[in-house]
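Mods, move this if it's the wrong board.
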Amino acid sequence: QAPEEARKSIGALLETPNFYHYLNAVENLEIVAEIKGKGKENIDDALKKVKLFERRNSKFSTFSLGMKQRLAIASALISDPNILVLDEPTNGLDAEGIAEIREVILRLNKEGKTILMASHMLDEVEKVCTHVAILKKGNLLSFGHVNEVLSDEELVEVCAENMLDLENILKQNRNISIKSNNKIIMISLLNNMSIGELNKYCFDNNLILTHLQKRKRSLESKFIEITQ
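Not the wrong board. Structure tokens:
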């Protein structure tokens, strides 16, 4: 496939949406369609996919930040691309706007679109993406399924009525590594020690756990570890 043809199957969203403020949503997308050499038949469908169809006749200047981002995604959908490249799609948005964009991305993926997203909002990456790549100065440091990238270490939260005794007991086991101790003790299980074995170990040492919960490492903590 020729490069110019391949590019037509890719839709892109830059970090900051840039449209004519005095034109409405349809008028702005008509200009986009003209630039891309496409007809206007996909405009209504694109607006419906990002839930802006009811505001299609409103000027861009009246849109919230979340609506502007959704219009930018609609712009990327004009050519009905197979691949969407989104650069910081939730940048500058409030919680409601972030949730709106997340819902749009997930829905488009269910419709068969492949979506590549660049983002520093790692919590959103965890919620939206199936795979993740961590880059530093153009070098690929880590790549894989989100769960695989985060699976290097299993963290467990534990509590007991006597936290001091619990900490001392945990320190005596070489298969347990204490990561933090602030009201709830966060530990890492080593050498394939299971949750059940941890619970039994504490019980055998006359400690009954009042709280025991597995926690995945956050992508943020993994990112900091890898890039440093």
